[in-house]
Amino acid sequence: MLGTEPINYEKHLEGVSRSFAFCIAQLDEPLKQQISLLYLLCRVLDSVEDYQFKDKKIQFQQMDEFESFFELHQELEDGKVPQKRRNQMIRWAQKFPRDLPRAEADLVKSTYKLIADYYALPLSAQTHFKQVIFEMSEGMQKYLLKNHNLKDLHDLNDYCYYVAGVVGVGLSRLLTDIENDFEFTTDIQKYAVGFGLYLQKINILKDQKEDEADGRYLVPNRDEVFISLLENAHEAFDFLESVPLNQKRFRVFCGWSLFIGLASLPYIYESYEKNNTSKISRLATKRLISKVEAHIDDPVKLRSLFESYIKPVKELRCYAL
């Protein structure tokens, strides 16, 4: 494990997102642990954003204090976070509402261990992590001030950039640290952001009714979101194609997320329209991931597979606008 404080990444990932845990498990080291850690840190920040604090000022203070945990380089003792700072992180975790779901509460309590692992990373990886966390926190605070009431598609794209697009950029930069044939260009940045927006919009559409019951209005126009998501899906595939063929496990990690999302969209659409719990079956998912892995290093077959799965999404009723 990274750092000096043992933490079970797989257990926490399974607790907060089984689907993402499944995809991360396909990665090789060092990306497996680095991406696991980055995702878990982002989920901690997500918990600050999602749950109701008695005083919104405390919520903003929690975000600011979380950012401060990534600026302790001058205080490290033999490369380790000093005990007084760990105690501060423990007290920070105790300020969360008591109604946090068990898995998220356990993750928040482990923040001081995650931060210790962050400082055990190579400096270049630390830089990438810090950029993601700071930009994500900035965007979350911006939309907390708006009470998560998104007015139009521009608002939605902006919000999705802060909570997911920046993660796509972070993953790309981590890959550049270990792969000489992968250069972080302007195009790669665009595709990485599009990948993040694509995945986030799927989640937002899936959770729309639940979010709105909690007072979070993230879908200004469902049809427009579907149409914009289609554009993001093509950017996500462009990102997948840009990853060198020799990085097979990273391509599988991206490919599974991309194709499972595509295959789920018709069910998400039907579930909302018919107010049921329609979703892709485990058998269909198993067959899909086998196809993706079989074609992941064959660009022609992979593109053909992409076209076959995006076609049903294009044919959804919303595209008749």
Features:
single chain, 321 residues, mainly alpha, Farnesyl Diphosphate Synthase, globular
Task: Walk me through this protein's architecture.
This protein folds into two domains: 8-121, no CATH class; 146-321, Farnesyl Diphosphate Synthase, CATH 1.10.600.10. The protein is 71% helix and 0% strand. The chain has 15 helices and no strands. It has helices at 9-16, 18-24, 31-50, 56-68, 83-93, 102-109, 111-118, 123-145, 153-178, 186-206, 208-213, 222-242, 248-274, 282-295, 299-314. Helix 3 (31-50) packs parallel to helix 8 (123-145) and helix 12 packs antiparallel against helix 15. Mean pLDDT is 91; it is low at 1-5.
CATH topology name of the largest domain, in short, is Farnesyl Diphosphate Synthase
Percentage of residues assigned to helices: over 70%
N-end to C-end Cα span = 51 Å
Gyration radius, in Å: 20 Å
What class would the helix/strand composition place it in?
mainly alpha
Detail the poorly predicted runs. Answer: 1-5
Strand percentage? under 5%
Shape: globular
Query: If classified by CATH, what would the architecture of the largest domain be?
Result: Orthogonal Bundle
Tally of separate domains: 2
Query: For this entry, what is the oligomeric state of its chains?
Result: single chain
Mean pLDDT: 91
The CATH class designation of the largest domain is: Mainly Alpha
Largest sheet features: none
Number of strands: 0
Order of helices and strands: HHHHHHHHHHHHHHH
Q: CATH homologous superfamily name of the largest domain? A: Farnesyl Diphosphate Synthase
Q: List the total number of helices.
A: 15
